[in-house]
Amino acid sequence: MWRLPEPRYDVASAISQGQRDYQEDALVTDFPVGDDCGFVVLADGMGGHAAGDVASKLVVTEVYGALKRQSGSFISDTGAIPNLMNVAAAQANSSIRDHVKTNPNTHGMGATLVSLVLVGDQMYWNSIGDSPLYLLRRGKMSQLNEDHSMAPQIDFMVQSGLLDAESARNHPDRNCLTSVIFGDKVAKVDCPTKPYWLVAGDIIVLSSDGLQYLDEPRIERLLNKNRRRSAAEIASILLNAVEDLQDPDQDNISISIIKVNHTQSITKRQSGASAKKTTSATRMADKSKLAEYAQALFSSGKKAEPRRGSTSVNTASNKAEEPAAKSVAAGGK
After folding, report:
1. Residue 154: inside a domain, yes or no?
2. What's the number of domains the chain is made of?
3. What pLDDT, on a 0 to 100 scale, did the predictor assign at position 184?
4. Measured torsion, CA atoms of residues 153, 157, 158, 162, in degrees rounded to the nearest 10
5. How confident is the model at residue 293 (pLDDT cuts 50, 70, 90)?
């Protein structure tokens, strides 16, 4: 009897409203069984009811649609994925702008974004805001994406002896965002052009900042203790741990867990007309045009900055980088 091979990825998600009046997180995953690629899109909205929850859904819907339409070309043209992700984020930014124009009462709405594309043993991401992307590898957890909030600067003040740790943890500007999708110029976009290479046993955690009510050492301990459990069990354990804090100010929480079961090589599955880029219905758009389109929509022109502190990772070499200065805060949640 023919059976499908072991899935490359074990994926599960969890979401909770926390102690907030509204659910402003939005999350979607797409990992078809039997396929060698998939993606996740997460957005954490800001702006309150009829604004933050709408913003996150607009962003996730726009980015999901853009990635899904081109997902048939992920394996055959991995080099085009970063440009595609930039274009998708830019389109999401435009959708927020258009919504605010027709609904002036939602002025100030916005959302963070982290989109993640996995193809075989390669991982790409596009990150705007402070929603963390963690990786547990060989017992050590690191944050891969940039933190576009004031937190890195405040933590640097502690390291420099300018502020004590307790004051830093409770600093009123700690969660103030330095980049966000809100229909205007996006100050920073973290979208590495080279893939991050995965190994069997990696556990990827993509979440909204509501998970960070747990400190990072505790998240790392929970992941290590439960690393042999399924992705669904790990997601549930993390969610329960946050809820057990019973913090009256607990933010919305959304979590996606991806366990990498194996990194065996994949075969580019193309046949007939789909193998011909000139006639394929799912072919990737010209890379240069994608890049020009993203640049025109963002009007940013800034390169992604190094990741923060000792937990940062270089996507080309997987070696830690030094912290970099952040821009002046653009807003808060």
Report:
1. yes
2. 1
3. 94
4. -160
5. low
Query: What span, in angstroms and rounded, lies between the C-alpha atoms of 211 and 317?
Result: 28
Mean pLDDT of all residues in 282-294:
51
What's the token pair of residue 222?
Answer: 């929970």
Nearest by Cα to 205 from 231, 244, 175: 231
At 181, list the tokens.
């999708």
Give pLDDT tens digits for 199-250.
999 999 999 999 999 999 999 999 999 999 999 999 999 999 999 999 999 9
Domain that holds residue 46: 9-332
In a domain, 1, yes or no: no
| Cβ(300)–Cβ(185) below 8 Å | yes
CATH number reported for the structural domain that contains residue 253 in this entry: 3.60.40.10
Q: What is the widest separation between alpha-carbon atoms in the chain?
A: 67
Residue 169 inside a domain? The answer is yes
Place of tokens 């490359």: 8
Residues 49 and 69: their CA atoms lie apart, in Å, by 30
Model confidence at 271: pLDDT above 80: no
